[in-house]
Write a structure and sequence with these properties.
This protein is an alpha+beta fold and about 200 residues long. The chain has five helices and 14 strands. The chain has a single domain, classed as Electron Transport, Fmn-binding Protein, Chain A (Pnp Oxidase, Chain A). β2 and β3 form a beta hairpin.
């Protein structure tokens, strides 16, 4: 089966891409507007870029009508964000935060999730998340037509928070983190079986 994605609508292309690029980790991103409203939103086009310097990438598409999402607007305004790792136990709250709310509504209030103060950046982190990266944006790269551009946020980690409860022998235990991954449509996944394969010498 060969699929020419350019023959599909934006929505159909999204469905094919998210059904085949999987599993995808979820960046639960908290930002703060110039008016002090804290935004919280999940994005699954997310990954690590480099370790030196420590940089993460989060791709934020536009709203359905083409308008810029609050996350992008806030990052472009003040350059700060916190990327939280979502454990399974708050998956439903994370999904609830993905609805389109007015810019003056904080998803922390809608979901009941806990705001914890960050150490370096202004936006708070999510108390229920065992891992959180305080970040400053290095660059925002626009991809696609201006009216429908996706913003790729390259975020440098300035401080990493890790809950002691997810450590085993001083190392992060992925089973204890219990992260949620995004699949296609409304499907999500957890780690499932975890195994080790040593690298060749």
């Amino acid at each position: 089966m060969e699929i020419d994605l350019n023959q599909f609508s934006t929505r159909e292309r999204y469905a094919w891409m998210t059904a085949t690029v999987l599993p995808r980790p979820i960046a639960f991103v908290s930002t703060e507007s110039e008016d002090g409203v804290v935004n919280l939103a999940p994005f699954s086009y997310f990954n690590g870029v480099s370790s030196t310097p420590p940089v993460l990438s989060v791709a934020v598409g536009p709203k359905r009508g083409g308008a810029m999402k609050d996350t992008t607007r806030n990052v472009e305004a003040n350059g700060e964000l916190v990327i939280n790792v979502v454990p399974r136990r708050i998956a439903e709250a994370m999904v609830k935060s993905s609805a389109e709310y007015a810019p003056d509504v904080s998803e922390f209030d809608v979901t009941g999730l806990t705001r914890l103060p960050s150490t370096i950046v202004r936006p708070p982190r999510v108390g229920e998340c065992p891992v959180a990266f305080e970040c400053r944006a290095l660059q925002v790269v626009k991809v696609g037509k201006p009216e429908l551009a996706t913003s790729i946020i390259l975020a440098e980690v300035v401080l990493l928070h890790v809950d002691d409860a997810v450590l085993t022998d001083g190392k992060v235990d992925p089973r204890k983190v219990d992260p949620v991954a995004r699949l296609g449509g409304s499907l999500y996944a957890t780690l499932g079986e975890v195994w080790e394969i040593g690298r060749p010498e």
